[in-house]
Amino acid sequence: MAEKMLSVATVPRSTQAAYYAAQGPANEVLELGLVPVPDPGPGEILVRMTCSGVNPSDVKARAGATRAMAWPRVVPHQDGSGVVEAVGHGSRFSPGDRVWVRFGQWQRSFGTAARRMVLPDDLAMPLPAEISDETGALLGVPALTAWLCVDSFNGPEGSTVLVQGRGAVAAYAIQFAKLRGYKVLVVTGSSRRAAEARTIGADETLLRTETNWPDRVRELTSGRGVDAVIEALFAANVRDYPRFMATRATAIVYGTDTADTTGIPARWFLQQSVTVRFVYLYRAAPARIAAAAQAVTDIAAKLKHGTITRLPLEQIVLAHELVENEEHEGRVVLSLSEANVPEETT
C-alpha cells in the first residue's frame, strides 16, 4: 500500500554489516563493511536491526561445519530484533512496528548481523512492548526448536519428560514442558548446570558423571521410566534409552553429535513400541513454525532467557568465539545500535 511506503530517498542503499567471503575461523574470515540493501518488494519489510542473536548454528555455518557456502558473501545470523523502517506492497506491518525475526540467513545470503536488512514479512513477529530488543533477538532458533520438541510429544498432563543437553534449547524445553504440566527431569554434566535447571523449573536433576543415573530415573518414575526424552546428542545417548524409557515412550531428537548411529538398540525400540521423532526446525511444516512463533511471542514475557553477553557489531569475532567456547555460559547478542561505521544513503 502506497501510504505505508517510505520515500525512496529515506531508504538506505547500503548498510553496515558483518560478513564473510570464505568459511573458516572467526578471526580469519569475518569482516565489517558496507553492503548494499534493496528496497522491500511485495510482502517484504526493511528492518532497522537493533540486536542480532548469535547461535551455535551460526558459528558452525561460518566455520563450514554444517554446509558449504552457497553465495560469494554471507551476512550471518538467523535471529534478531528491530524496528520496521519501510514496507513493500501487501505487508501486514507498518513503519515503526517493533519485530523479532527468524530464519534471517536460512537459504538467503543476508542475515541479521547488519544494521538494516530486507526480508519476507512472514519471517517477522510483532515484539510485545514488555519484551526487550535483546530478548527478542534470543527467541528464534532456540525457542522455536524447543517449542516444536515439546509439542511433538504432546502427552497428557502429568507425563514425565527427560531433557538431555545444555544450552538455550534445553532451557526453553524445560520451561515449555512445565507450562504443559509435565514433570521434568534433567540430566546434565555439572552441579552448576543442575542448579540452573532447577531455577527454571526442573523437578529433578541428575549428574551424568554418576554412572547409575538411569537407575535413579527409574526410581523417580516408580520403575516405569520416562514418557519422553528431548535429546541433543542422539548418537551418544541412544544406547542408554532401554535403561530409562517407558514402554510406548517418545524420543524427540533435535541434535546429534555424530552421524554414526552404530549400536542403536533397534529390537528394543521395536518391542517396546518406542517412537523417535526428529525435529529440524528449518524443515518443519510452515504452519507449525508459524504456530510456534505465535506461541513463543505470547509467552516470552513469562520465560527466563538466561544471562546475556552484549557486544557491539565490531566485536562479532569475539561473539562467535564465545559461542564456540563450551565453558562460556549464557547467550550472546550483538547490539547493533552501538555500531559506529557511517552508512551511505541515496
TrEMBL record:
Domain Enoyl reductase (ER): 26-334
Record lineage: Bacteria, Pseudomonadati, Pseudomonadota, Alphaproteobacteria, Hyphomicrobiales
Keywords annotated in UniProt: NADP
Any GO MF annotation of the entry: oxidoreductase activity
UniProt superkingdom: Bacteria
Signal sequence range: none
Organism: Tianweitania sediminis
Name of the protein this chain belongs to: NADPH:quinone reductase
Matching InterPro entries: ADH-like_C (IPR013149), ADH-like_N (IPR013154), ER (IPR020843), GroES-like_sf (IPR011032), NAD(P)-bd_dom_sf (IPR036291), Zinc-ADH_QOR/CCCR (IPR051603)
